[in-house]
Write a structure and sequence with these properties.
Layout lengths: L1 H23 L3 E3 L24 H4 L7 E7 L4 H16 L3 E7 L4 H6 L7 E5 L5 E6 L4 H8 L13
Parallel strand pairs: 2-3
Antiparallel strand pairs: 1-5, 2-4, 4-5
Length: 160
């Protein structure tokens, strides 16, 4: 009787862990604001520091409203689906840019932002600073929720 009980406990525990992991997939997590004049910021507050990403880091200029910087790997099915979703959002939403980078080629960004899995998407504000991130497969609703954390582009400004 001890064996079947242990198997049930292990299965229950694995199910709970799987459900928690699945619930966090693609969910946007905003970074905490850094007080003005602060010289040292705890690592969890702003992953990668407050130094903005720009043309040199991304290969393209950041969007006027937001930039989705997707760090992917070659053998990642979730990366392909996330790429399709974010590219479609960038096409339909004004001032939004999507950039997909190979994590293996951009180890500097992987280390700087503590990327542990692919896809990881950094959400940049109009000035190139990271306002949040998403890990795992992302759907359109999650991408739009992340986009809501970024200010709308100014009226009359060019959108791309």
């Amino acid at each position: 009787m001890r064996g079947p009980g242990l198997v049930l406990v292990v299965l229950a525990l694995a199910t709970v862990i799987g459900l928690v992991w699945r619930a966090g997939n693609g969910r946007f997590r905003a970074t905490r604001a850094v007080p003005a004049g602060t010289t040292s910021v705890p690592a969890p507050a702003v992953a990668g520091g407050a130094v903005p990403l720009g043309l040199d880091d991304l290969g393209v200029a950041p969007g006027e409203r937001a930039t989705f910087v997707q760090l992917s790997s070659e053998v990642c099915a979730a990366c392909r689906s996330t790429q399709r979703v974010l590219a479609a959002v960038a096409v339909t939403e004004p001032g939004v840019v999507h950039v997909e980078l190979d994590a293996a080629q951009r180890l500097d960004l992987v280390e700087r932002f503590g990327v542990l899995r692919t896809p990881t998407t950094l959400v940049l504000g109009p000035d190139g600073t990271v306002v949040g991130r998403m890990s795992g497969a992302t759907d359109r609703a999650q991408a739009l929720a992340a986009l809501a954390s970024c200010p709308s582009p100014r009226r009359g400004a060019a959108t791309r």
